[in-house]
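User: Design a sequence. Structure:
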């Protein structure tokens, strides 16, 4: 009967090792949109299963941008810091897994010591100075009957996964910043080209007025007006050049280079805006790394509730030790010098002044906070997608209107200059027509840059590009 009880006790302990006091976990439910409110076309949810491109910025088809993104991945200090944080979290999680295994330690203590002459119960034949050598091995194993260690390891794993998602989110944010700065620099190159043409046009007009002034056809007022408009165009050109320099410096910082070490040649050629596909399912939002990180923190908080609950229950562990000890000379492994001990250890909470109760309430409150943060992150993701979809739609419509205005202003400029040469209109009409034409061209170019930025923002809001493959699910323990 005693043997049956002992065997049954071991079987019960093994069964309890699979026990966990953490609440059953399922990812918080969120209402993802089947259709986005801000539509460009017929947006609908589909399950196409397209994977995200590893480098979403390649959709712009610019090799210089590709090179800069690779340099960012290799040299950006913020990204290096995020990687180090992830590695620290991963190492911490691995350390928590170590508690699930038996713990072994060895010790050796060779001592030369002297005992007091007045030591109680000291024998007359005992020497005052003697050697005391001890060597031993100890083993311990926490049975983890209530899942405390396993929930700690699960929470550590989830925290490491969240840190990996934080790393991905930092990478995506930096990639977006770099892409936006690059298209702005290209836009400023195009602005510079427009202003250089404007300076050339106004220089030719000033030369025409000077010849007419020398022939007493134009007045000194016309000459001053033309010179002023030329200086204004040059000042605008200088401002664009200064903005382009600052953009290049910001790009250099992102790619981990000194401003003077990065050469970004001017390129006014327009970038091709990748078309937005007609199917943008709401499930795309779940692949955003910040959303995935928030979900992992909810899981970690759920596991920590199990850790707090397990503190209420007895902690069972097995311990064993063996070794040898001599005083003076002798063989540590001799039978007379050996010692050993083996047995279970039971720790039972009796009174803690409410600490365990407070820990459990704290764990539950942290779970509620993590769940609320997850829902907030999903709402933010939906809003960012809607914002950028609205930008793509509204900027396209605005660019169409400005395109017509720029074409009409260009025609008016040519007509005013021709009629001025014929003496049919005043110089003020020509200068006004030139200013209108240049302003409309610059406005159109600025809208084209903003359209590219809106597509970059939409790609980043969806987690990086177009696709419909959700992130892999993390299996809770």
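Assistant: Done.
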């Amino acid at each position: 009967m005693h043997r049956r009880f002992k065997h049954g006790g071991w079987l019960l302990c093994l069964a309890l090792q699979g026990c966990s006091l953490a609440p059953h976990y399922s990812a918080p439910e969120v209402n993802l949109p089947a259709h986005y409110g801000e539509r460009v076309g017929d947006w609908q949810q589909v399950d196409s299963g397209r994977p995200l491109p590893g480098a979403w910025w390649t959709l712009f088809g610019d090799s210089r941008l590709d090179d800069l993104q690779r340099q960012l991945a290799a040299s950006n200090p913020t990204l290096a810091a995020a990687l180090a944080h992830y590695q620290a979290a991963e190492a911490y999680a691995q350390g928590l897994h170590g508690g699930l295994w038996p713990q072994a330690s060895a010790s050796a203590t060779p001592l030369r010591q002297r005992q007091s002459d007045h030591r109680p119960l000291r024998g007359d034949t005992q020497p005052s100075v003697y050697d005391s050598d001890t060597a031993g091995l100890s083993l311990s194993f926490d049975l983890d009957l209530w899942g405390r260690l396993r929930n700690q390891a699960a929470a550590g794993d989830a925290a490491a996964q969240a840190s990996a998602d934080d790393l991905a989110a930092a990478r995506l944010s930096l990639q977006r910043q770099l892409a936006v700065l690059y298209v702005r620099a290209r836009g400023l190159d195009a602005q510079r080209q427009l202003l250089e043409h404007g300076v050339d046009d106004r220089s030719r007009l000033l030369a025409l007025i000077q010849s007419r002034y020398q022939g007493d056809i134009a007045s000194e007022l016309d000459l001053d007006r033309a010179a002023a408009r030329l200086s204004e165009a040059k000042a605008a050109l200088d401002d664009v050049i200064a903005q382009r320099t600052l953009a290049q410096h910001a790009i250099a910082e992102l790619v981990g280079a000194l401003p003077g070490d990065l050469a970004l040649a001017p390129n006014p050629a327009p970038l091709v805006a990748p078309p937005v596909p007609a199917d943008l399912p709401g499930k795309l939002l779940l692949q955003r790394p910040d959303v995935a990180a928030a979900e992992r923190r909810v899981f970690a908080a759920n596991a920590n509730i199990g850790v707090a609950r397990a503190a209420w229950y007895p902690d069972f562990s097995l311990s064993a030790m063996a070794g040898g000890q001599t005083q003076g000379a002798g063989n540590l492994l001799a039978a007379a010098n050996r010692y050993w001990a083996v047995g279970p250890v039971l720790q039972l909470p009796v009174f803690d002044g409410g600490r365990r109760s407070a820990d459990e309430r704290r764990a539950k409150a942290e779970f509620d906070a993590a769940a609320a943060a997850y829902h907030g992150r999903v709402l933010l993701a939906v809003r960012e997608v809607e914002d950028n979809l609205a930008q793509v739609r509204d900027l396209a419509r605005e660019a169409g209107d400005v395109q017509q205005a720029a074409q009409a202003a260009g025609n008016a400029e040519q007509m005013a200059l021709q009629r001025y040469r014929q003496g049919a209109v005043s110089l003020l009409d020509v200068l006004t027509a030139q200013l209108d034409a240049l302003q409309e061209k610059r406005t159109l170019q600025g809208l084209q840059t903003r359209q590219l930025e809106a597509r970059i923002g939409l790609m980043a809001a969806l987690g990086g590009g177009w696709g419909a493959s959700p992130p892999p699910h993390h299996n809770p323990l």
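Confidence is low (pLDDT under 50) at residues 40-52, 468-477. The longest strand covers residues 129-142.
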